Amino acid sequence: MTAAITVEGLSKRYRIGARERRQTFREALVDLAAAPLRRLRSFGRSSYREEDSIWALSDVSFEVQPGEVLGIIGRNGAGKTTLLKVLSQITDPTEGSARLRGRVASLLEVGTGFHQELTGRENVYLSGAVLGMKKREIDRRFDEIVDFAGVEQFVDTPVKRYSSGMRVRLGFAVAAFLESEILLIDEVLAVGDAEFQRKCLGQMDSITEQGRTILFVSHSMGAVGKLCPRSLLLERGQVRASGESATVIAQYLGSTPEAEDGRELQHSRQDPRFAVTDVAWEMAPGTRTSQCIAGEPATFVVDIDARQPLPDMKTGVLIHSPVDGGLVAGVWSQEAEGKVLRLEEGINRVSLHLDCLALRPGRYSVEVHVVEHTRGPKAIVNVAEPLVVLGSSRLESSGNLSWLGRARLVPDVECTQPSGKGRK
């Protein structure tokens, strides 16, 4: 099978302090006329010094098969956006090559490709024409685009008068609904509100089912883990890891999913009928981590070894402030529609899934409670390793953070018996 995207030895160097952009014909003529004067001014001086440049990408190679969804992750400045700009032909590579087979739609920043003086309607048709679509093809998808973006009232208003949220909604809708074979998406979903993000992720699920090829850049490890079977980790412009998303995300977060030793547990109260044998937190399914990101999905996983069937149990994870040790948040299994847990004999894994970890950045102490739903005897376990929450500007700007006083974090709950897990 011929790859949809082939990248070989791709490198991109920027001159520090220089502005690189594509030139119009008029600008090229002016630049040509001014060239002799620039050469005279630089006479006797070196025109280029290695220390005056930075390699945003360095020898990047990978392939993406048709219909594959590839995640691109890494810290700020790792080269993610530069990679997508080269693939979108917004900027030229310094070395190497990139070949994309099929029509390409890009959503790299708010309103990418929109003409600010044109209306929303005109920009939809302009974007479709750039993709090589016929007017009747755009007509067929136009109502879906406008409805998804929620800009019906303003569709004939110039885009320059749109809010940033309106522009990103329309930009995503255009990229998602117009019929391109390849879709390049940068970290733009953070601009929208929570409801819009849910719509976008749902639409991306639909796009993947259509067999379209997607490159998805995001700082949301939950979204990457959910949407992308495979990911690349970029670090200082180079590919540091490539493979199954759970493994790559774990490396990015500084842990390994294969770790089975668990965190050190201190049992302050025990019950002879069962014991807590392991506690972990995850930002993507099956990906243990020591660091979570504020505002992103997270899962608390508790392994319980039951010596007998226990039909009426509940599990809670209590999170204490790094400032004064006070209780900040509680995550209880019974909060999920009053659900009680039935523990079978042997190892039971209770997973408490949170859509949003609404905690400020910091190091939190964690306490796990397992108790009969009827307030019977219980086990209390203190986890020696702290829960480290990293900052998120998007969540902090929303003000939706817990810090003082108790907050209820309502989870989705799953209780399973992991295969191959014997009694410890």
List the helices and strands and how they pair.
Layout (H helix, E strand, L loop, with lengths): L4 E11 L9 H17 L11 E12 L4 E5 L6 H8 L7 E6 L3 E4 L12 H11 L4 H15 L14 H14 L4 E4 L8 H16 L3 E5 L3 H7 L2 E6 L2 E7 H8 L12 E5 L4 E11 L2 E2 L2 E3 L4 E9 L3 E11 L6 E6 L8 E3 L2 E9 L7 E11 L5 E13 L2 H6 L8 E2 L3 E5 L8
Parallel strand pairs: 3-7, 3-8, 5-6, 6-7, 13-20, 16-21
Antiparallel strand pairs: 1-2, 1-4, 8-9, 10-20, 11-12, 11-14, 14-18, 15-16, 15-17, 15-19, 18-22, 19-20
Helix pairs in contact: 3-4, 4-5
Please characterize this protein's 3D structure.
This protein is an alpha/beta fold and 424 residues long. It has 2 domains: 5-252, Rossmann fold (3-Layer(aba) Sandwich); 265-416, abc- transporter (atp binding component) like domain (Coagulation Factor XIII, Chain A, domain 1, Distorted Sandwich). It is 24% helix and 35% strand. The strands form 4 sheets. Strands 10, 13, 15, 16, 17, 19, 20 and 21 form an 8-stranded mixed beta sheet that branches. Strand 19 and strand 20 (378-390) form a beta hairpin. Helix 3 (120-130) packs across helix 4 (135-149) and helix 4 crosses helix 5. The radius of gyration is 26 Å and the shape is elongated. The model is unreliable at 256-261 and 402-407 (pLDDT under 50).
**Residue windows where pLDDT falls under 50 for at least 5 positions:** 256-261, 402-407
Number of helices: 9
Percent in strands:
35-45%
Secondary structure: helix percent? 10-25%
User: What is the radius of gyration?
Assistant: 26 Å
* CATH topology label of the largest domain: Rossmann fold
Per CATH, the class of the largest domain reads Alpha Beta
Query: Which homologous superfamily in CATH is the superfamily of the largest domain?
Result: P-loop containing nucleotide triphosphate hydrolases
DSSP strand count: 22
